[in-house]
Amino acid sequence: MSSRIELAGVGQVFQVRSDTDKQIEEFVALEGLDLTVEPGELVTIVGPSGCGKSTVLDLVSGLTRPSSGQVVVDGKVVTEPGLDRGVVFQQYTLLPWRTALGNVEFALEAKGGLSRAERTRVAREFLDLVGLPDFENRYPHELSGGMKQRVAIARSLSYQPEVLLMDEPFGALDAQTRERLQEELVQIWKRTGTTIVFITHDIDEAVFLGQRVAVMSARPGRIREVITIDLDRDAPDDVDIRSTPEFAHYRHEIWTLLRQVNRRAQLNEVNQVA
Ligand code: ADP
Ligand code: MG
Fold this sequence. Notes:
- The protein is of the alpha/beta class.
- Helix content is 38%, strand content 25%.
- The chain has seven helices and ten strands.
- The strands form two sheets. The protein has a six-stranded mixed sheet, sandwiched between helices.
- The protein is globular.
- The N and C termini lie far apart (52 Å).
- The mean pLDDT is 92.
- Magnesium ion binds at residues 53-54, 167.
């Protein structure tokens, strides 16, 4: 159960108020952006802050429509949000008045078609999948940041979307929790076969998770380069993949690209002012 995602010639223009004379002007956030994610693939998108990463994700999720170009998921042009696409954001979006179990059940209520008992059974199954079987009766304020994101992931996976869209979901977590969740996400992805698009500004996270890493440029946002990451994802548990020479090679390659991207963005800014 997974879908192909295609972004073709995508542009996004926002109307913004100018800092100087308060007139409405156009801000080109994305221009001519092309990216295809194959069914079942895990692609990470990395780029400088403000380059348009969240804008790309909003377009695929259907929260916004592009100013130009097309966003196609599973052969259909995206026009609105749908349960075929699950989204996990950086900030915790759980309902505070519902338990962990209740939050996952809530998503299943929205989907419909299941009895109360079936919803509970499926919700438990997905809390189990994200490693939270013993915390179903806790309220969000009783859970750590990492646990809350696990619940959010369980909630998004519970209605079995074809595509999972993640916008810096581990950005607010401490380094150790973050690494554990990255490892667990890879396991979950292997088990479910869901197509995943994962946004981050962390190079290590992009290399660790992505089968391919799409590096974005800024002003306007577009895909600068897509790098295939050939690491042994079936390595035994005690192999520290992040410390291998191959990992360091990819990290450096992407670091170099991002440096070029940032330099160019700075030059553009200078030219616009001049
Ligand atoms: P990122 O997620 O890479 O940090 P965003 O996609 O959030 O970047 O934003 C890209 C650019 O578009 C930023 O300069 C941001 O200020 C601008 N932007 C995003 N959404 C809007 C909006 N609704 N209206 C005006 N400008 C926006
Ligand atoms: Mg963002």
